[in-house]
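note to self: dont lose this again. the chain is below, predicted strucutre after it. 184 aa total, dont forget to put it in the shared folder this time
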Amino acid sequence: MFRTLPLIAALALSAAPLAADEITDALDSAKQAYEEGDVAYALEELEYAKQQMLALKTDALSEYLPPAPDGWTREVDTEMNAGLAMMGGGVGAEAEYSGGGESFTIRLMADNPMVGAMSGMIGNAALMGAKIVRVGRQKYMLQDNQMSALIDHRILVQAEGASPDVMQPLLETIDYRALSGFGR
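---
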């Protein structure tokens, strides 16, 4: 009797599932549905898992948005990815900064086809009549009080809504080196 107890305990522990999260559960459910021939449900579960993973990436990207300066407020837009889905995908994060009678928005977009199209514009800013300004080591295209930079050829940083002298100090606080490694 006592000899079988360790065996029963070992079997019980090996059969206990590892702590799972919603993504793992959805992927497991998709696999099971596929094996059972329910392709429609498998696709639904895969889409759900994809949405949850994009939410994780969005949260991670939001970490690069600078905190509000003293006397200012920051409001993060949590609905930005819905719009990106209609523009080819990718992830984005956006925050509105308000204070001292001014307000402006900083937007980050990663791995979106539109970002690739922006690289030609930013690279040829002078030909388009735009000005190039430096924010630390980063070059920004300045046009009509909108500042745009391309990080690692795949991440767009935009600030708009106030004069560059109001937005630039906050843009200087972004860790561009860390941002270039986002999602890798």
